Amino acid sequence: MTDRLSTTELHDRFVAAVGPTALIAARTDDSGELVVELRPPLPSRVRVYIYNATDPPGGRPTPEHKIQLTGQRRGERGEFDWSGVDLVLVCGYAVEHDVFVFWDAALRIDFAYSTNLQVRTANVEAAAASGVRVRQDRRLKTGMEVVICAPSQLVVEAIEERASSGEAESRGKGVPATQGQPYVRPSSGGSATPTSRVFRFDPDAIDRGTNAHRKVQNQLADAVRARGWQPLSPSDSDPLVDVGWIAADAAWIAEVKSLTPTNEERQLRLGLGQVLSYAHLVDWGFENNPVLAVEREPSSAYWPDLCESHGVALSWPDVFDELLDTCV
Fold first, then answer.
1. What's the CA gap between 271 and 256, in Å, rounded?
2. 147 with 158: CB under 8 angstroms?
C-alpha cells in the first residue's frame, strides 16, 4: 500500500522539487491550495492542486496509481480555480517512487466529488527508474490528454511542458464526444446471427450460442444499470461492441462470448482479439478499458492471467459485481 503524506508535506515536496532556481515565492490561498510564483520562462503564477498518488490493492486489471479530487463537499460538483493565476496544475505525488504525475487541469471541467484520475503504475515506475519524463495518452470526453510522469528532479521541465501544451488557451473549451447510444436489448427467441455469418457452423450450435450470448449480455447490462450507470450499445459509427458504459472518467468496452466444452478455447481467443480491437477503435472521449464477459468461468486456469497481461478484464455473471467494483 502506498504511503500517504499530509497536505503540508505534499506542498513542501512540490516546493522542494521546484527549487530556488525557479521559485520566487510560495503560499497557500484561502482555500488551502498551493500558489507558487515562478521565474521566466515558466508561468509567473501557478495554482497547484496536489494529492497523494496511490496504488490501492484490488484495483483495475492494469495496475494504476490514482488521485481523488475531493476539494468540494460530498455530493457537489467541482472545478479548478483559475482566478488570479496563469496556470493550474493538478498533480499527484507517488512518495515511494519520488515521482510527480501531472494531469491536464484544462480538460477537467465540472467533476464529481472523489473523481479518480489514473495513470499506469508502469509509467510511474519507468519515470523513477529511468530518470526521464514518461508520458501517457488518455482520451477524455473533453479531449485528448497527455499525462506526464516526472521524477522530482524534472518537475520544472514537466511544468514547462504542461504550460506549453496550450492548457490555458484550451481551458473550458472541451466538447464531449458522442458516446454510443442507450443500450438496446437483443431480441429473444430465434437466431440473431445473419446468414452471411453462419458459413459452415452447425445452426443448432449457433442458436444455442446466440441465446446464451443474449442472456450474458443482458445480465451485464442490468448489473451496470443497477450501479447507476447507463449501459450503452454502439452507435452507427462504432464497432460492434456488445455492452459499454462510462464510469469514473473511463469507458468500459465489453465483448460477450458463450462457451461450450467444445468451443471454449476458440471463443475465448476470438473474444480476446475482438475486444482488444474494439477498445482500440471506440472513440467515446475516454480512455478505454476492455472487458471479455463470458458465460461461465473458463475451465483453463491460465485465461485470467492471459487476459490481465493484455489489460483485459475477464468476467462472468458470478463475478460481475467484482468487475464493477473496479470501475470506481
1. 7
2. no
Report the distance separating Cα 231 and Cα 120, nearest Å: 25
Between the two ends of the chain, the Cα-to-Cα distance in Å is 18
What number of H helices and E strands is found in the chain? Answer: 8, 15
State how far the Cα of 45 lies from the Cα of 325, in Å rounded to an integer: 40
**What distance lies between CA 262 and its chain's CA centroid?**
36
- Say which DSSP state 266 is in: H
- Give the torsion through C-alpha atoms of 262, 268, 273, 274, to 10 deg: 90
Which residue has 505534499 as its cell numbers? 10
Pairing of strands 87-94, 45-52: parallel
- Rounded to the nearest angstrom, the gap between the alpha carbon of residue 122 and the centroid of all alpha carbons in its chain is 14
At position 318, the amino acid (one-letter code) is: D
Bridge partners of 68?
116
**What does the pLDDT look like over 233-242, one tens digit per residue?**
998 778 889 9
CA 124 remoteness from chain centre = 15
> What SS3 state is found at 274?
helix
Q: How far is CA 106 from the centre of its chain?
A: 17
Among 123, 119, 121, 144, residue whose Cα is nearest residue 133: 123
Tens-digit pLDDT profile for residues 182-231: 888 886 554 344 433 334 444 444 544 578 889 999 999 999 999 999 99
Residue found under cell 488518455: 138
Distances (CA, A) of 299 to 188, 218, 295, 307: 28, 23, 12, 14
Query: What are the two backbone dihedrals, phi and then psi, of residue 211, each rounded to the nearest 5 degrees?
Result: -65, -45
